[in-house]
Structure formats: structure tokens, C-alpha cells
Amino acid sequence: MPASVPPGPRSRAVRALSLVALTTTVLLATACASGSGAAPEGDPTAAIPLPGPDDGDQGADTGPDTSGGSGDDAEPPDGAGTDETPAGDGPLGTRVVLIDPGHNGGNAEAADEISELVSAGPERKACDTVGSETGDGYAEHEFNWELSLLVKERLEADGATVVLTRDDNESVGPCIDERAAIGNEAEADAAVSIHADGAPPSGRGFHVIAPGEVDGFTEDIVEPSRLLAEDLRREYREGSGMPYADYLSGDGLDERTDLGGLNLSTVPKVFLEAGNLRNEEDAALLSDPEWQETAADAIARGLAVYLMRE
Ligand SMILES: [Zn+2]
Question: pLDDT tens across 21-62, in order?
């Protein structure tokens, strides 16, 4: 469904206040991490050399994501990458963030197109997939789209330039390689693909996926992406109340080398599997508009913490 974009409940002023607190937190955390309790030397936030541009990507759900590709040839990624807004005032005013809402509402009707093989790094994989859904039929592509818009709204309120990989929730694709390319071309400082998993109903919780080492592809982004993953994991867990995925090991952090969206990215990038749509308890949260607002706050904070490290 076309994204209804509920207006964020928090005012710009409130966000500005929270950002001040956030900045303080980051400074303290960085100072602690630097070792001695002595007065911090230099700029404690200047920690992470970020590699160049990155990309957006999608289609990474672990395991049993009920994606179903079917298809026909690739459809033009409707306006992908065109949703760009100028940087504004605010603490993130010089930063560019790529948000990649996984899948798309038109994919199910375009089996041939989305099953076409595209580069995923060393191997080729399907252009895109359909995604999962809750037992009540709330589709993952819709959840991804709605949550992405809420996160975008928050980051823009803090001055960031936000690029989305798709402009609506009724089109097809774009393919995973193109989602990555959009972030690379935008020279994003951070990129996140937003998904929800389709794991066995008995499992619940979220996980963040960071790129593993893939020779010739991910060397430059592994380290910064790991930091991004850790910041996002911490803020999302605290803010959303969603537990770490109990059907995976790793305390909510996973590393993958088979995702085109990560392998083809030249900018720091992670995937968020926000919860398990097939689990009743998770589904109740994931489909709750109020929870989505809270989750978007947490995701935006995770990204902001990372961006303010540099
Ligand atoms: Zn997905």
C-alpha cells in the first residue's frame, strides 16, 4: 500500500533535545572507549574513517523469507534514487544516508522480472524477491516502506540528506545490484536496508546483518559497517524493545557474505531484520503504527550515533 506516512509524533524541538543528549552519550562513550579517564585528547568523535560511496540493497532476509520471485524482465526501478532532499540545518547537515526499503509491492506480479539474475558480488542472484508477511497478511514490503519513511523523516529533521532506493510501494524492484549502486552513487555516509524476517513462527527477535570479508568486494566496508551494525543494534534494542533474534546466534548481530546489497556496496552498509513477521508476538509489534514510530526513533538514533563518530 502506498505508504501512508503518519506524521511523526515528535516535534523538531523534541528531536533536537534528544540529539543533544545523544551527542553527550556519544562523546562519553567514545571517551570511555579511548581508555584513560584523562581528559579526552583531540576530537573524540573523529574515530571512523568512512570509505567512499555506498549503495543500497535489499533482499537479504535470512532463511525462510517467503519471497517468491516470479517474473519477467526488469522493470525500470521506478524513480529509484531520485528521492533526494537537500541537506538542511542540524547536527547531521552534512551527512548523506541511504535507506533501502526491502522488496516492493509490485514484485509479486512480476515474477520474471525479479527472478532475473544480477550480480551479487562473486555470484549472481535473483534481481529481487517478494518478501515475507504476517499471518494476517501484512506484507513485508509494506512494513519496510512505512518504517523507512518514518526513519527518513527523523533523519531529515536533524538535517541529513536521505536517499531512498524506491519511490513508492507499488512498483517492481529495483534489483539488488541497483539498490547498492544507488547508495554508492549518492556517496552515502551510511546505508541501511530495512527488512523484516520470515523465519519459523517459533522464533522471534531482530538482527542486524553486517558484510563479511569478500575478496575484491567488501574489504573497505567491513570495519565501518561493523561499527554501524553495533550502533544500530544497541539503539534498536533499547528503543524498540525487540529482543535479539533467538533463532540465530550472535546476539542480534549476523555477518553475511552472500548478500548482493552488501557485497556491491562501497559505503558502510548493514541490513536490519526488524523482527520476525511469522512470529505472532513480533508481528503484533511490527504491524503496530505506534511501535513503528518508536522503532523509527531508535533506528534514526542508531544511524546518528554512527554518523557522529566521524
Ligand atoms: Zn526482506
Answer: 555 454 444 433 333 333 333 333 333 333 333 333 334 454
| Residue 273 one-letter amino acid | E
R_g over Cα of the chain: 18
**What's the grid cell of residue 136?**
494476517
Grid cell locating 172 = 517492481
Domain 50-307 has CATH 3.40.630.40: yes
Whole-number Å distance, alpha carbon 131 to ligand 1 midpoint, is 5
pTM to 2 decimal places: 0.76
Catalytic residues: 273
In which element (H, E) is residue 101 found?
strand 96-101
DSSP 103-117: S-TTGGG-HHHHHSE
Residue 61 has what pLDDT? 53
Residue 58 alpha carbon to ligand 1 centre in Å: 7
Question: How many degrees, rounded to 5, is the angle at CA 169 between CA 168 and CA 174?
Answer: 80
C-alpha 67 – ligand 1 centre gap (Å): 8
Strand 124-126 relative to strand 117-119: parallel, antiparallel, unpaired? antiparallel
